[in-house]
């Protein structure tokens, strides 16, 4: 169950939207921030706030790759595997991330810090290989830079 203050904030967001669906991503992101991921309970709460069915919320949630319907680590790494990044060896970066973190794609590190996910083009094609950690984008990745970023993100956590 969400705190009354968060409920009020989300109700105000929905009330300011022209249609409930317009506020859906904001509502799901806020609930995700509260729970750590979009739990079944959160889907029900989003549905109630938005005046949608849980199935409609589920459809929206599974469309957006930044909405997580399974538990994730404290920080989610999205590493681009689309064509421009592929041309500059994103596969090498992905392999380095897997080795460094000791996880496969879709998995979370043993300490619960990072979840590693592949993603489609992030709009940073000229700066590939690219990834984001949480909301922070990083480009022109090399294995050495990845190591520095992971260390810095761990310290920021
Ligand atoms: S293809 Fe990777 S950011 Fe566009």
Automatic annotation (TrEMBL):
Q: Which domain of life is it from?
A: Bacteria
PANTHER family assigned: NADH DEHYDROGENASE [UBIQUINONE] FLAVOPROTEIN 2, MITOCHONDRIAL, NADH DEHYDROGENASE UBIQUINONE FLAVOPROTEIN 2, MITOCHONDRIAL
EC top class named in words: oxidoreductase
Pfam families recorded: 2Fe-2S_thioredx
State the protein's name: NADH-quinone oxidoreductase subunit NuoE
Q: Which NCBIfam families match?
A: PRK07539.1-2
Q: Which SUPFAM superfamilies match?
A: Thioredoxin-like (SSF52833)
PROSITE patterns membership: COMPLEX1_24K
Gene Ontology terms for molecular function: 2 iron, 2 sulfur cluster binding; metal ion binding; NADH dehydrogenase activity
Q: How is the cofactor bound?
A: Binds 1 [2Fe-2S] cluster.
Similarity comment: Belongs to the complex I 24 kDa subunit family.
Q: Which InterPro entries match?
A: NuoE-like, NuoE_dom, NuoE_N, Thioredoxin-like_sf
- The answer to whether UniProt assigns keyword Endoplasmic reticulum to this entry is no
Organism for this UniProt entry = Geomonas terrae
Upper lineage is: Bacteria, Pseudomonadati, Thermodesulfobacteriota, Desulfuromonadia, Geobacterales
Q: Required cofactors, per record? A: [2Fe-2S] cluster
Positions binding [2Fe-2S] cluster in this chain are: 80, 85, 121, 125
């Amino acid at each position: 169950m969400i705190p009354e203050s968060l409920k009020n904030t989300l109700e105000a967001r929905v009330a300011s939207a022209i249609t409930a669906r317009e506020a859906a991503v904001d509502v799901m992101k806020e609930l995700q921030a509260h729970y750590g991921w979009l739990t079944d309970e959160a889907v029900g709460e989003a549905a109630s706030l938005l005046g949608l069915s849980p199935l409609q919320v589920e459809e929206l949630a599974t469309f957006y790759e930044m909405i997580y319907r399974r538990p994730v680590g404290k920080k989610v790494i999205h590493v681009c595997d689309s064509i421009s990044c592929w041309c500059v060896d994103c596969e090498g970066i992905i392999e380095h991330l897997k080795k460094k973190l000791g996880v496969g794609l879709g998995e979370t590190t043993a300490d619960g810090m990072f979840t590693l996910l592949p993603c489609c083009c992030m709009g940073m094609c000229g700066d590939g290989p690219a990834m984001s950690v949480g909301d922070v984008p990083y480009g022109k990745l090399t294995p050495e830079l990845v190591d520095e970023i992971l260390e810095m993100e761990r310290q920021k956590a």
